[in-house]
Amino acid sequence: MISFREIDKNKDVFLIKSIRDQHLKWLHNSTSFSLNNTKKWIDTLEIPYYIISSNNVDIGYFRLSQYSNLNRSLYIGMDLDEKYIGKGWAFRSYCLFIPYIFNLYTLDKIYLEVLSTNIRALNLYKKLGFITEKVKYKEIYRGGIYINSIVMYLNKSKMESLNIYNDI
Predict the structure, then answer these.
(1) Cα(14)–Cα(20) distance, rounded to whole angstroms?
(2) Distance of alpha carbon 58 from alpha carbon 17, whole angstroms
(3) Cβ proximity of 74 and 68 under 8 Å
(4) Which pLDDT belongs to residue 138?
(5) CA-based angle 86:134:123, to the nearest 5?
(6) What's the chain's average pLDDT?
(7) Strands lying side by side in the sheet with 2-6
(8) For residue 11, what is the DSSP state?
(9) CA atoms within 13 Å, Cβ hemisphere of 127
(10) Full-model pTM
(11) What would the pLDDT profile of 68-96 be if each residue is shown by its tens digit?
């Protein structure tokens, strides 16, 4: 069973820092923060992050940003503890969370941005119905090479038409 809850700014800082540190190579900003800096950063969030739990064990979190009430859109991202990667947790979590977040914020569109080198995530997002909107060529310089960043979106109407969001 998968559940979600808003982050507790006092309780969840270590979890977010440790999972984020596991994924630095996949993030657009690969800066590692101290625990204290992570807490300060969490305090600045405009909209909450959501902890993902399975049977009362915290396994990851959803990142939300760039919320626009006017445009009825926001950006989403997810980080899972590496013990849960490749086992279907991301797919199941997104399938439950996306309809919830569409309704909670009265959205028409959800965006995400993913590095072109993150093939596993790209395949997941395509499976979830996300469509490429644009490619930011040579957006990130890492490891001696430039990496493209891909902006993808999912409309509410498309989400509602896909059986995967009804079958979970």
Answers:
(1) 10
(2) 13
(3) yes
(4) 95
(5) 15
(6) 90
(7) 2-6, 50-54, 57-68, 73-80, 109-115, 145-155, 131-142
(8) T
(9) 13
(10) 0.90
(11) 999 999 999 999 999 999 999 999 999 99
